[in-house]
Amino acid sequence: MALRPVREDDVDRLCLLNSEPGVMRYLDRRPPSRDAVEAEVAELLRHRARHAGFGRFVAEDDGGTFLGWFGLLSDGAGVPELGYRLRRGAWGKGLATEGGRALVDHAFELGVERVVAEAMAVNAGSRRVLEKCGLRHVETFHVPFDDPLPGTEHGEVRYEITRTDWLRSRGADGVVLPGA
């Protein structure tokens, strides 16, 4: 799998991803409109210009087939948030963990002190991925929604990994330790 920065010509791929059954299950009742995706891509391009090294990255397999995206978006205060969305055909293959780990490493190589991520508490798959990427659960919180998704009553969860924990998970020579 290869990651590259999102481009304007990715809008169709992103719309296709959002419309796949199950992809938006923990995010929204229906996929965003094409206009909303175009606006989001425009904002992502502006974000990348303001925050070098951060942004949304398209994931492709060795043949160039679109698999989804990974995001490492800076909040402007130096605490980037990790996120991802994969096509159903890419689920269960370890790609979310592979891409997530790559972006966590990238964030710390850029000099950040911590990386955060959020998910619905009932989203067990994403929570496992975050843990495999080295993030630890730090908080469960509740957000009021006008039209809550099933499972919202269990709350949202916040995960994080600090630079210290990231360095601890690696040997002094930068080699990842077994079981880390």
Automatic annotation (TrEMBL):
List residues of the N-acetyltransferase domain: 1-164
Task: List the Gene3D superfamilies hit by this protein, alphabetically.
Answer: 3.40.630.30
The highest taxon in the source lineage is Bacteria
PANTHER family for this protein: GNAT FAMILY, PUTATIVE (AFU_ORTHOLOGUE AFUA_3G00765)-RELATED-RELATED, N-ACETYLTRANSFERASE DOMAIN-CONTAINING PROTEIN
Output this protein's name. Answer: GNAT family N-acetyltransferase
The species this protein belongs to is: Myceligenerans pegani
Taxonomy, top ranks, is: Bacteria, Bacillati, Actinomycetota, Actinomycetes, Micrococcales
